[in-house]
Amino acid sequence: SVIEHRKLRVLHAYNSIESEITVLFKSVRKTPDKIIVVLSIKQKENKDVGTAGVKADQDKIHPLFHRLNLEGRRHNKLSAADVLQITEHPLQSHESCVEEELVQTFLQKILMMDYRARYISVKETNEQDQQRDADSSEDEGDFFEYVLHNTSLSNTVTSQSERIHPMDVQMAVFHCADGFLKQLMVTKLSQCQYALPLLVPDPFTQQIEFPLWTFRQINKSWKMRNNDNEIISQTQPIYKTQTPVVFFFRFGSVSSSKSQLMNSLINEKHNTFFHRNCPGSSRTRVLMDGGVEISWFCPSGKNTDKFTDCVAFCNLHGDAGDHEKQLQILTEMASVNVVLLPQLDKNDRSAAMMNNLFGNKKPLICLLTEDQSTVMKMKKRKFKIESSSTFRLEDVSKHSDIRVDEEDDDDSRRGRAAAQQIMNSLKKKHLTEIKESFMPHQGKLWHQWSQKNKELHRPRVEEKDIDISRKQSEMKKIREQQHESDISEFVKLFIKEMNTDAEHEKMFFIKWLRILLDEHISTKQTELEKISEELQAATFCVEHIMREIGQIYESCSSVKKNKKDLQIHFSSLPSLAAEMMISGFPLELMDGDAAHVPLIWISAVLDELIQKLGDQRVFVLSVVGTQSSGKSTMLNAMFGLQFAVSAGRCTRGAFMQLVRVSDEMKTQMNFDYILVVDTEGLGALELSGRSTRYHDNELATFVVGIGNLTLINIYGENPSEMQDILQIVAQAFIRMKKVRLNPSCVFVHQNVSDVTAGEKNMEGRRRLQETLDEMTKLAAKEEVCDAGCFSDVIRFDVQNDVKYFAQLWEGSPPMAPPNPNYCENIQELKEYIMSHASQVHSKIEPTGNIDVGLVQYCFCLQ
């Protein structure tokens, strides 16, 4: 790097990386093969000097878990199912809470991507209020006694020092969560642009864990300039991204906040690393010492970027002298080491460690807190530090004496081995041939059958009975051809693994298969981005495997016999899909490629759900909107789900996922589950052509028909785009009226610049009502229906049934955290949905009626 007066720059030998920290140049010592830079830093503001590294006593750990109601959770781990169910607590907005609810409130906010999860204030209990009042009444009347001898002041300080540190809440949940909840939690922390746990000492055994599994779902995107000065985009799974890493640590107690200094490098407007000056920070920290956190800077390709490539930053909490293993691992892997130092004596143990670092060839930067009594001679020089080492997250697992979570878990290892065995059969085929070779049942034959089925239910006027009979015969022949198709070894292995009784192993198997499929396909897809058809052929994931199983089931049902190479009876296949749904995985409801609902398969899966869960009452929440309008992101934030999200046409067709309602809420809500239905966007560019409008009408009609409540997602404020979607929606509701279905809707207006402007919102509502009425008239003519305004078609209150959402990001991606106002809007909408659902319980269908209802809904598509 180049280091100059008041600036410190770190330039990688191969990739130019830049960073700036305000520093004062103090002294430089050069050696032939390295450079040691010693800098003096000045802290702008400092609260609780030297307290952030207070080492936790073992006797503080058990009381902490007790106060957080996590005593029994060290072995009986919290699961994702525990925190994703609908309870009364998440239906309330919590800026503060009592201590016992800290864990629930933290999880509620972090799952909604609300980065204020770390800043929850704790309410005093009634007992604490009474004690404080009693203390203040005793001190009335004597100023000197109150100020100079008052013990209540010291009691207040003691009380504050005993507040639970926000990072202790996070890490206590982390230690008490199972692998799937940990992964979900860390993924959400990453979305909030927070640092993530990299090395985690067990609070009871001090065994160091590397939670590699928790990073497996995280992708990072950034933009950089190539040698021709062209901006190129990169998106990579973070666990395999090769980056330089800057490692920060300290010896002893220093007055400057290391985490605050790192934040100024990564994102000055956001506290990536929690530090002592953050809201809610306390003097005592129990679970963080010895932990290492990691975060990445992702450039946006602009001249204002501090770094021109993706750079990792690691932060060792506590005195590095007390955590030699962590220090050794990170100093070896780092491209640049940065140490904050107090005044050291030569006899200190830390001084010996510094001598070892001095002997290392790695670039070393020493930061000393400025000593005002020292006279410093200021020099303006430039020095270049070169470091060729880079860092890959997966490589941390190669170090001995640390526990790697996914390797230590038997279910994870077996699930991975099974997924890897299946993946081996894919490697012999070109990416664009995988679907055709391994998934023959969902290819041309299924598309032909879907088209014939549509023609059968939309007969032309001149069509005779003999033509209808001919089509039915053709459809039967197609099913017979499907049935004769061989089942690939890939699908056989998948069915075999899913047919075991080990629930956790099955969940790991599916997760690992998703990870390995993404890894296998993403490396090749970039070559096909310019060729849409080939890119679609190369898209392959777990959803396609389940679609293939669905078509195997439908073909067997049609010819009423089992396939010769199917190791189980075909009637068992719906049970596998039902188990996946119960475990929290989404199931494809509408095939996005064929634009068809496989009714026989879906009905069978729902029947299996009834067998496994009982005839439960289900409230169906669906969403419709334009492409890339944030539908999946909204549902994920609202319910903690993980529908696929990215730019472009990410969701194809429609997917459904079950969300459980807690026992205490069932009586209030009068239903047991919410069935959340996510759909592909309307007006997809990939479908541009004559069929686009017809396809959109079909999709909107299906989505509106299946839902008890439909969220209509509108992005931006472009009047022409609003008109297109509103006419499609109006036409869908008119069709519902014709078949006597009465769903409800809520309009969600996304990316509104000022959601608090009442007058502007009133004008927006008035304009929306006018446009809806106008589009309803046009749609009514097409559908030959008498409707003069939208309220003639559906019960709609423009004041209450229109919600305005702030923009998702607080700043410019990729480094921007989610906007807290967006999270508040999500919370308000969720409360409104639950309130609405509780009022329409008489219309809630039991699961036994949903499969019957699907036939009615599909009738609406004709």
From TrEMBL:
The organism's taxonomic lineage, starting at the top: Eukaryota, Metazoa, Chordata, Craniata, Vertebrata
Chief site of localization: cytoplasm
Protein family (similarity comment): Belongs to the TRAFAC class dynamin-like GTPase superfamily. Very large inducible GTPase (VLIG) family.
Protein name as annotated: VLIG-type G domain-containing protein
Domain of life: Eukaryota
Gene3D superfamilies: P-loop containing nucleotide triphosphate hydrolases
Annotated localization: Cytoplasm; Nucleus
GO cellular component: cytoplasm; nucleus
Keyword field: Cytoplasm, GTP-binding, Nucleotide-binding, Nucleus
InterPro entries: G_VLIG_dom, P-loop_NTPase, URGCP
GO molecular function, one term: GTP binding
Limits of the VLIG-type G domain: 615-862
Any Pfam family the entry gives: URGCP_GTPase
Annotated source species: Sinocyclocheilus grahami (Dianchi golden-line fish)
